[in-house]
Amino acid sequence: MTDTSIPPGIDSTLSLQYHASGGNDKSEWAPYTQVKYYTNAFIAYDGKILLGYKKRGFGMGKYNGYGGKVEPGETPLQAAARELQEESGVTATLEHAGSLFFFTAGAEWAFQIEIYRADSYEGTITESDEMRPEWFASGLKKTASHVDDSDLDLPPIPYVKMWETDEIWIPLLLSKQPFAGRADFIKDGDDFKPWKWWYGRVVDGAKES
Ligand SMILES: COc1nc(N)nc2c1ncn2[C@H]1C[C@H](O)[C@@H](COP(=O)(O)OP(=O)(O)OP(=O)(O)O)O1
């Protein structure tokens, strides 16, 4: 399927090139009334990526980037830096990587998530109440001058223990191609299953914050 119609919920000012879509593509996108703003930040360099194992709250038991709600008065970039520091103990210069819109049928609100990445960090990565940090091999080649033997045995990104559509956009984040997308989910017991999704690559510049 190469559906070129961009779903509601995605910033219509972005110039997007179709990347991937799937699921129940004949069904309509679910209507939503409220949107809440979130962030998600990933540190990735030299062939490795830092993920956190979520120990509590929404997404418990999954690996993800570091993030949470944008608080009143914050920009998404400020919220992303704060959440990264609170949950991992480190600071980093974040660059915007993409924008995602997620909705689960019957939920009170849709998630608008600004995704960030960093090539380096300062401080000591620390386990918090919310996240247990773990490095994974990103699959991208290391630069010769930075090869660290201790990284050679890192496990691959654990997509089976992540939100199901992450596998579509994490490679875009790693290769620094700006992206935007929407995924609708349905609740399946305690889990969420993707119902319908659409992702595009930003071809005409990305948001700065
Ligand atoms: C497909 O859906 C999702 N995929 C991915 N990769 N990440 C998602 C998805 N839906 C939500 N998220 C992210 C967005 C945030 O980074 C967290 C949820 O934030 P949380 O509920 O932990 O927010 P906090 O402000 O930290 O909450 P507390 O009140 O617990 O501090 O998941």
UniProtKB/TrEMBL annotation:
Q: Which InterPro entries does this one have?
A: 8ODP, NUDIX_hydrolase-like_dom_sf, NUDIX_hydrolase_CS, NUDIX_hydrolase_dom
Q: Where is the Nudix hydrolase domain?
A: 28-160
Query: From the Swiss-Prot or TrEMBL record, what is one GO molecular function term?
Result: metal ion binding
| Chief location | nucleus
Q: Which domain of life is it from?
A: Eukaryota
Q: Which Gene3D superfamilies match?
A: Nucleoside Triphosphate Pyrophosphohydrolase
Please state the Enzyme Commission number of this protein.
3.6.1.56
> Where is this protein found?
Nucleus
Write down the chemical reaction(s) this protein catalyses: 8-oxo-dGTP + H2O = 8-oxo-dGMP + diphosphate + H(+); 2-oxo-dATP + H2O = 2-oxo-dAMP + diphosphate + H(+); N(6)-methyl-dATP + H2O = N(6)-methyl-dAMP + diphosphate + H(+); 8-oxo-dATP + H2O = 8-oxo-dAMP + diphosphate + H(+)
Its keywords, alphabetically, are: Hydrolase, Magnesium, Metal-binding, Nucleus
Essential cofactor(s) = Mg(2+)
Which protein family is named in the record?
A: Belongs to the Nudix hydrolase family.
Q: Which PANTHER family match?
A: 7,8-DIHYDRO-8-OXOGUANINE TRIPHOSPHATASE (PTHR43758), OXIDIZED PURINE NUCLEOSIDE TRIPHOSPHATE HYDROLASE (PTHR43758:SF2)
Under what name is this protein listed? Oxidized purine nucleoside triphosphate hydrolase
Q: Which organism is it from?
A: Hebeloma cylindrosporum
Upper lineage is:
Eukaryota, Fungi, Dikarya, Basidiomycota, Agaricomycotina
